């Protein structure tokens, strides 16, 4: 499945529990020798009263707490399966609620953003996370600087720039992902504000790399733009894969993400991949 080109291998392990190693995840995610994906998602039996539990692994095998585009995909599956108007998905970062928005789109209540330095987390204290001290490029003439930092169940650093396409995120992203300020690594985004209701976004996703779309990055960017007085609470985020509608509601402080999903194909998983091997 994919959400705006951010693609996933989805394994339903509710009837047959499966212990996935990091090697197996990397083998499945390998685009040359495996199936190929940005993240590997497991649908598991609920643990805390939800409709299903969603496990999330990046292509490098690392486990993460949230994935917005995958949430829409799994939300669609569980909505169809249960016939409910909304479903509750358990994730490592908490419960999220998914509902049908019509026209093939799904809305996900991503919950409240986390804005304190130790919640994101950062390795040192910043009183104001709307913009922290971090520069990229020559001293005194940085390419970009002063990112906003937000957690949407995973850490994000968002640099607001004049021209997102002028930034070589494929080069800068890996260095910033592992910057000492981010003890759990970070997703790195460059955002270009086109209008108070429209933002262009490019994302380097930790453990994955350049991605066509990142739902939590879009949510984090919407929040950051409001906090910096750059955008309204309802905004369209344009990523390389397409558009997401983001709303940070003042009434409940929750972030709502709406966008499309696509079911690509299903099939049987080669057991050699589960063993961490390669398929010739």
Can you summarize this structure?
This protein is an alpha+beta fold.
- CA distance, first residue to last residue: 24 Å
The protein's oligomeric status is: single chain
State Rg: 18 Å
Overall mean pLDDT stands at: 94
Helix-strand sequence: EEHEEHEEEEEEEHEEEHEEEH
- Taken as a percent bin, the fraction of beta residues is 25-35%
**What's the CATH superfamily of the largest domain, by name?**
Diaminopimelate Epimerase, Chain A, domain 1
Overall form: globular
How many DSSP H or I helices?
5
CATH topology of the largest domain: Diaminopimelate Epimerase, Chain A, domain 1
Low-confidence stretches: none
CATH architecture of the largest domain: Roll
Number of strand elements: 17
Structural class label: alpha+beta
Helix content: 10-25%
Largest sheet: 15 strands, mixed
The number of domains is 2
